[in-house]
Amino acid sequence: MNSVPRQQARIGQRALLLTTAALPLTGWAVHAAALHKQLAATRRDPLTGLLRRDAYTTRARRILARHGDDAAVIMVDADHFKQINDTAGHPAGDAVLTAIGFPVKSMCSDLRGC
After folding, report:
1. Are residues 38 and 53 in the same domain?
2. Where are the beta strands (DSSP E) in the chain?
3. Claim: this prediction has a pTM higher than 0.70
4. What CA–CA distance (Å, rounded) separates 63 from 60?
5. Cβ distance 53 to 107 under 8 Å?
6. Side-chain-facing half-sphere of 54: CA atoms under 13 Å
7. Are residues 93 and 73 part of one domain?
């Protein structure tokens, strides 16, 4: 009968040892996830979700190095955007950028681009 409490004590000690060993790893994983989220936020425009200039340039160079002449560039121009932004205000301009960015991002995601 004494073997049951001893076995439970061994399991408890093992669990404590494993938990103690895993705690620093858990903290590291949480920290790494937070850093990854911060880095991703610096790479993408918060309104459109598209890559910012530096991240886009890096990505474009990588794609051109890999695919050369088989790569393509998409350029989007919002006609009269300044007028919309100036007359209707920045929230309206933000809505225009969001409306443009979503389909572009969807298309780029399908093509493994931006």
Report:
1. no
2. none
3. no
4. 5
5. no
6. 6
7. yes
Compute the distance between CA of residue 31 and CA of residue 18 in angstroms, rounded to an integer: 20
- Give me the count of residues in the chain: 114
Residues 3 and 37 in one domain: yes
Summarize pLDDT for 23-82 with one digit per residue, the tens: 777 777 777 787 777 776 678 888 888 888 888 899 889 988 998 888 887 788 889 999
User: What is the reported pLDDT for 14?
Assistant: 75
The residue among 60 and 18 whose pLDDT is bigger is: 60
Domain containing 19: what range? 1-43
Inter-residue contact 96 to 83 (CB < 8 Å) = no
pLDDT of 5 over the 70 cut: no
For residue 24 the two structure tokens come to 């620093």
User: Are residues 110 and 60 in contact, defined by beta-carbon separation less than 8 angstroms?
Assistant: no
Total domain count, the chain: 2
Given the structure tokens 């990588």, which residue do they identify? 62
